[in-house]
Amino acid sequence: MRRLLVVVFLVLVAAVAYRSLGSAETGTGTLTLAQPAPNVGQQVPGFTATGIDGENFELSKRGIFVLTYWSTLNKGASDARPDFARLAEEYGDRGVSFAAVYVNGAPSEDESAPYIVIQDSNGRLASIYNVKRVPRLFLIRNGEIELVQNGFYPGSTSDLRAKLDELTKVNERPQESR
User: CB of 67 within 8 A of CB of 84?
Assistant: First the structure.
């Protein structure tokens, strides 16, 4: 019985020391890892790629781009496709370029999508943007990341729409009162 009390006491002392003397992350009792780079505020490299329809896509340092990484095997990516298509139709007229990069085979029904569909068969584009899990979406303006979404969740479309509205807002002059 005495041994058990000593072991319990030592475990409690170790736990208190771990939580008090560790960093802010270890003090919470969990280890929080940073999101994989690139993240908001970071510059990203441009690239060129050919879509499955033969159309060229260029992500350059000028302009607004929505770049998403999907897999046909991922339910979140499948759930995101209809909303992504609606956003591409709506914001494509405002000068925003949309591209979906598939890390495996792209579905044939995406050939008529209102965004360019890119097959990343060699993993080159996934490695540029450090994509380890899909879906992963980047909103990029003039070569800098404005928004990153990991996964697809109910509010992700409204978050993306709000940021797109902010970035594409036309500065209108107030009308003078007479």
Answer: no
